[in-house]
Amino acid sequence: MSTLKLPGLIDPHVHLREPGATHKEDWHSGTAAALAGGFTCVLDMPNNTPPITDADALRAKQRAASEKAVCDYGIHFGAGTDNVAIAASLASQVTGLKMYLDQTFGPLRLDGLESLVSHSSAFPKDVPVLCHAEGRTVAAAIFIAHLFDRSVHICHVSRKDEIELIRKAKEKGIRVTCEVTPHHLFLTLDDCAAIGVGRCEVRPMLATRADVEALRANLDSVDCFATDHAPHTLEEKDSPAPPPGYPGLETALALYLELVREDILTFDDVIARCYENPRRIFNVPAQEETWIEVDTDAEWIARGAEMQTRAKWTPFEGRTLRGKVTRVVLRGQVVFENGCVLAKPGRGRNVRPEL
Ligand code: NCD
Ligand code: ZN
Description:
The chain has 355 residues and is an alpha/beta fold. It has 12 helices and 13 strands. The strands form 2 sheets. It has an 8-stranded parallel beta sheet with strand order 2-3-4-5-6-7-8-9. The protein has a 5-stranded antiparallel beta sheet with strand order 1-10-11-12-13, with helices on one face. Helix 6 (160-171) runs parallel beside helix 9. It starts with a strand and ends in a 14-residue tail after the last strand. Zinc ion binds at residues 13, 15, 45, 228, 230.
């Protein structure tokens, strides 16, 4: 066995579903899944019910998280059509402003240009706006970064034309960063038959082999890995109207390590994308005396039923993975060991002040 000691990983894009959909996940089950996957900090998205688009909703989420979380966390605020001033005034309490420019789960989709422009000009320039952008809206997001000379982070890039455009924007010095998910690096549309029609639904949708190869060929332009952990129950996924989204926190690290074994990345490259870059881009404070231990040789079979996530399924069901988190230490205390979460609910801290 070879045990690797790594910094606690940071996932900049998760959906822990509380408030509003705790039957899918809540702050305890979601952060337990994070620890099991080697993440000691997760940044949570605002497409809740109600959406996190005003001070009251933010406070309710802060309260739920502070009572239940077992790892540290940050909260991304949601951009709506009428909350430009409110979003800007709450910027110090959040890790980013999420703008949904394309089809997604929940009510936060922004149509038209007006909200994109007004939020991007009003929101503090050093706190990232995160764009769910696909195809031509990637170009819009890059233009916004250029026009307002501001930090723009593009979520879950999935296609060849998108990553190539982002590469060119970076070469020009535009302040754009991006993330890629494990599912867009390891699955294609051809996998849908095996995963199942409803379970396979995700936004952005899985793409082609050529897209996956382009993402892998352009990993030097990819700042962060993000799971986009988006749990829905099996009943929902297998229904006639399956919501899009995959749970991903507990399979991610083993897949990232597969890229090392395939000689596409080094260990240091993985750490850059799972720790250093998300920490820098989202200004996450250092977690003192915090690390994870990973048995890099341990082989295991992905089984949703055995996972911490309340979703209890995975698009990688049955796949043999290599690399298992054996211990997580958060601020000097063992919070996860050999499959068991040892931290008490409330152990996790918000990485931003709550005012
Ligand atoms: C996400 C969800 O379920 O909240 N679904 C998804 O397919 N990724 C929403 C999103 O990130 O667009
Ligand atoms: Zn998402």
